[in-house]
Amino acid sequence: MNYTDAEVFAATAAMDKYRAGEGGEASAALVVVGLSAERAAKEVRIRDDMIRVAHDAGASVRQLAEVSGLGRKTVTAIVSTNTQIQD
Description:
By secondary structure, the protein is mainly alpha-helical. It has one domain (5-80). It contains four helices and no strands. α2 crosses α4 and α3 (61-68) crosses α4. The longest helix has 33 residues, at 24-56. The protein is elongated and about 50 Å long. The protein starts with a helix and ends in a 7-residue tail after the last helix.
């Protein structure tokens, strides 16, 4: 695989962001936890956006709660927020 200098720099910067001056195993674990948290937050934003899309298209709060594994109150709060889909 070939990577551009920009891709390598971005990956290094992301890892440095979470290392917190630690070394060795602790550093590696902090990087994984930090990057995983970023990914999880992105997944939640995507899920919430899709919940809003489905609701706007006619899906009920009950249906959305069942398929998402969230409670109806949580789904209601998500569909009540007026945010635009972004990546």
